[in-house]
Amino acid sequence: MIPFINGLKERVLHGGCITRDEARRLIEIPVSDRDTINHLINAAQEITQKLSSVDADLCSLVNAKSGNCTEDCGFCSQSSHYQTDVNTYEMLTPEQILASGQAAEARGVDRFCVVTAMGVLNDNQFEEVMKGFQLLHTRTKLRLEASIGGLTKDRLERLKTVGVTRINHNLETSPDYYSKIVTTHSFSDRVETIRNCREAGMEVCSGGILGMGETREDRLSLAFELAKLDVEVMPINVLNPRPGTLLEHVEKIEPMEVIKTVAVFRFILPKACLKLGGGREVNLGPYQELAMRAGVNGLIVGGYLTTAGGPVERDREMMERAGYRIPEANGSLSSK
Ligand code: SF4
What we know:
Layout: H1 2-13, H2 20-27, H3 34-51, E1 57-65, H4 94-106, E2 111-116, H5 123-139, E3 143-147, H6 153-161, E4 164-168, H7 175-181, H8 187-199, E5 203-205, E6 208-210, H9 216-228, E7 233-238, H10 255-268, E8 273-276, H11 280-284, H12 288-293, E9 296-300, H13 312-321
Parallel strand pairs: 1-2, 1-9, 2-3, 3-4, 4-5, 6-7, 7-8, 8-9
Helix pairs in contact: 1-3, 2-9, 3-10, 4-5, 9-10
The protein binds iron/sulfur cluster.
């Protein structure tokens, strides 16, 4: 297996791709085979350093509208289809969105994403978000991202005028497994928004959630779909089952299975930022640093939409120990 991994690594480093069958051989390596897993991790790290980036991509987010979402995503405590104890509120004011961005900037985060719980915003909601972005654009140095559901080309053009350069829109899982998790909109709806982003010249941040009961094949399908869409960033979340949701009783995925999967994703998406997001603390705990050595070069920091995260400073230190440079809020990089 070691020569096989070395051969794939060399091919990727020289601009080649790995096939589905080759990826399957990698993801089927038993996690008990630590020598081979360690070799895979080291190869993924080398690909990250040479083809992706050693500059950590840290982003913080604000949940600008919480709960009462009409969609039925089975992992999500904000869906109105489930009885959960999530805090619900309507759209934050533009000033509240600005204050949240300024707080993130003060913590040394350089990217900021405004997120809203809703499949597609109505016109009033969209205009409020636009005002929030306008304030962030003029009053902070943050690099701005939006995760506000399905987007038309017209809305994407408007977002560009207020400094938004990147759109988050996750595929969540494989095309085959998607309908087991979400029924109120389709996988192809999500792909359409990503294609609109591409046409609008926006950077695309799109990934998914591991540990929703999907198979390894589903995980590979997700990664190959994202490779086809040439995404700049792949957020990798690990399900933190929320009481009351469809997936509240799903069995947890092992930390080493997550780390192996991240390493395989690195072979499939050699240039993308692999960004570890929600569920990382509860599912990976001390293994998070190993995930960074296996290809993770970005983090969502400072908490998630409906669950708390760890201190930003601890995350920055963890990334520095794993060999990454940390950006300051103005986009410059700290010296190591
Ligand atoms: S993931 Fe987004 S679209 Fe789906 S239910 Fe939650 S808030 Fe709504």
